[in-house]
Known about the structure:
about 230 residues, Endonuclease III, domain 1, 12 helices, mainly alpha, 2 domains, elongated, two-stranded antiparallel ribbon, Endonuclease Iii, domain 2
Amino acid sequence: MKKIATTALEKSPVTAATLDPAPVNITPDYWLDACKHLVKKDRVMKRLIPQFGDASLQSRGDAFSTLARSIVGQQISVKAAQTVWHRFAALPKAMMPAHILKLKVDDMRAAGLSARKVEYLVDLSIHFDAGTVHVKDWAAMDDEAIIAELVAIRGIGRWTAEMFLMFYLTRPNVLPLDDVGLINGISKNYFSGESVSRSDAREVAAAWAPYCSVATWYIWRSLDPLSVVGSA
Length: 232
């Protein structure tokens, strides 16, 4: 899959966490049960899952920096995003909302950020600094409630919010129907390469619940075994 962060329908599952130099391997508590469920319920998963051994999700960073990286990486290559992120991250005393809000726009632009991305990062910082995103409550909130909080921030769409749920919060049952990798993977593995609609994809995924995140991860791996590293 392409390693370019563009629009939601053009993105691969390489998320903001790709930019993090220190990934932390995790295995969610539900992972083994999810694999057993998927192997039992779905013929494609029965074939795919054994191909990837003990590999599973990775999670990195903190919520604020993960989302900031996602914004920085929009519409540019992973390599370019890494360069811009390191320049930007060198500006504040710490990657915290209050410190970002003290930065000068000219300095942020000089780091390689577009005017729009500067606006997005400022809006992200305002939301976190003001407490309008309830990070401490997320564990008790359902997926759609968290998505609603995140998409209220400029520069964060549903795709980014779903990647964040999957990779940062490791929610087990996220189905990112706007993800081109998922749609292409379903087409390849279930429809012999024929084009599929969101409705087709949703029908296939009915057998995956309540572990759509895990199945999606394996579908991505079927397209590019090395690129899915986790997040956004």
